[in-house]
Specification:
The complex is a heterodimer of chains A (about 250) and B (about 200). Chain A is of the alpha+beta class and about 250 residues long. Chain A contains 8 helices and 7 strands, in the order H-H-H-H-H-H-E-H-E-E-E-E-E-E-H. Chain A has a 7-stranded antiparallel β-sheet with strand order 1-2-3-4-7-6-5, with helices on both faces. Chain A is globular. The longest helix of chain B has about 40 residues. Chain B has 2 domains: about 80 residues, Orthogonal Bundle (Rna Polymerase Sigma Factor, Chain: A), CATH 1.10.1740; about 100 residues, Arc Repressor Mutant, subunit A. The N and C termini of chain B lie far apart (about 55 Å). The chains are: A alpha+beta (about 250), B mainly alpha (about 200).
């Protein structure tokens, strides 16, 4: 293909919006054509320049507090005043008794998060990220039959911003589990499903999205299974995908 | 260190507006400031956006694109707050003067700019773009939105996203070119003066 025919699609290519086959063809061409390589470099520099220049304005902390105060779910005042003193007293009394226990729990929990983060990173770094490649949940779900000792439901993501890439087998805490990979914009998100037994008792239930080393992780338990959603996408993206899974499995 | 956000429980809808909306606060404010070009107006715009979004949150469908929804509210609020702005948002059609997309030369505004790290020059050029070019560039490059997400935010077809982005980039390059030349001349004069000294 002549260079001129590539030029029309240059920005779309650099925005990562071409279909995967065309992306690969473009990659090959850019690596072999010095003119297009120089063109690509210049355009990437402009993109980076705009990105840096565009992050220009920051809200004041006072303004943030004002908005947060307006949208926060407020507990009833009378309830709060009545019980505040008693609750504080109780917390102080029992805090020392629980501190050792909580320390151990936290350590186990952070260890589990690290393991999940490692699985996510290792899969993305692998040349074969998924064993079953399909955007169709009806292809991916049956693939796990006979490979893992449980079944789970995958949400329909066609009308959402998420795209299913595929799935693979994985292990954590010596238990087999399912690893699914989704994309949202240019981010890749892993969803892990394990039997609860491997992770039982180390979670602060009801408090289930975490952030560590820039990864956001959501986790919850349902029907004897423990779910993890992890990626470098925003908290909102992780939370949305988690909700789709919760809806699918409920 | 871990930070916890609840994603479980039956009272999900009651609790989750804050969880979903506050992570977008800095980005929305930045975008609002770029649109309004004024801190006070940006704060008013963000405040009104959050108030409207909170009020309409019950109609938001969980699982759909919350970020695009918030940006759409902000942008529509901005447009309606400015008398006559909707009319000026009419994007002119491509003219023949625009010419075909040309290859970027080896010594270009972007390479020189990045070399100099002249962020202010680029910020000024973006500031001077028409709103319809400024907003689409920021959504793509700063917010890293996909074309689909931009289409949802701006309520325009995907094809229009692609063509408008292309024209926005071309306009920015064209506007940077004379400034870069001027800057290069100034740098050359300064260099010459230093030598003479």
């Amino acid at each position: 293909m002549l260079c001129e025919s590539w030029k029309e699609k240059f920005d779309t290519y650099l925005d990562g919006e071409l279909p995967s086959e065309e992306m690969r063809a473009f990659d090959t061409h850019v690596h072999s054509c010095s003119s297009c390589a120089a063109d690509a470099l210049a355009r990437v520099q402009l993109k980076r320049g705009i990105q840096a220049a565009g992050k220009r304005f920051a809200p004041t902390s006072e303004f943030r507090r004002r908005i947060q105060g307006k949208i926060a779910t407020k507990p009833q005042r009378s309830f709060r005043l009545t019980w505040m003193f008693a609750a504080a007293l109780s917390i102080v009394t029992v805090a020392s008794l629980f501190s050792t226990y909580l320390g151990v729990q936290r350590s186990h929990r952070e260890q589990a998060y690290s393991e999940i983060a490692d699985l996510h990173v290792a899969a993305l770094a692998s040349s074969s990220r998924v064993d079953v490649v399909s955007t169709d949940r009806h292809t991916v779900k049956p693939w796990f039959q006979g490979k893992i000792p449980f079944a789970f439901d995958l949400p329909e993501v066609q009308n959402s911003e998420f795209t299913l890439v595929g799935g693979r087998m994985t292990y954590a805490g010596q238990s087999p589990g399912a690893h699914l990979i989704y994309t949202v914009r240019k981010h890749e998100i892993s969803v892990f499903v394990f039997q609860e037994g491997a992770f039982r008792g180390i979670w602060d239930e009801g408090s289930s999205v975490t952030k560590e080393l820039s990864f956001n992780i959501a986790t919850w338990s349902h029907g004897g299974l423990r779910y993890f959603v992890i990626g470098d996408a925003s908290t909102a993206d992780i939370s949305n995908l988690a909700k789709l899974f919760k809806t699918a499995s409920s | 260190m871990f930070y916890y956000v609840d994603v479980s429980g039956a009272d999900l809808q009651v609790d989750s507006f804050e969880e979903l909306a506050m992570p977008l606060f800095d980005q929305l404010y930045n975008f609002a400031h770029w649109l309004t070009q004024n801190r006070e107006e940006a704060e008013d715009l963000v405040q009104e956006t959050y108030a409207k979004a909170l009020k309409g949150f019950s109609s938001f469908q969980l699982g759909t694109n919350f970020r695009a929804w918030m940006y759409r509210i902000l942008r529509n609020t901005f447009l309606t707050s400015r008398t006559g702005l909707k009319a000026t948002m009419t994007v002119p059609l491509d003219t023949e003067e625009d010419g075909p997309e040309l290859a970027v030369e080896s010594q270009t505004p972007e390479t020189i700019l990045v070399g100099r790290s002249d962020r202010e020059l680029l910020q000024k050029a973006i500031d001077e773009l028409p709103v319809y070019f400024r907003e689409i560039l920021l959504l793509c490059e700063v917010e890293e939105m996909s074309y689909q997400e931009i289409a949802e935010t701006l309520s325009i077809p995907m094809g229009t996203v692609m063509s408008r982005l292309s024209r926005a980039r071309k306009t920015l390059r064209d506007r940077l070119r004379p400034q870069v030349r001027e800057g290069s001349a100034t740098a050359a004069i300064a260099k010459g003066t230093n030598r003479a000294l």
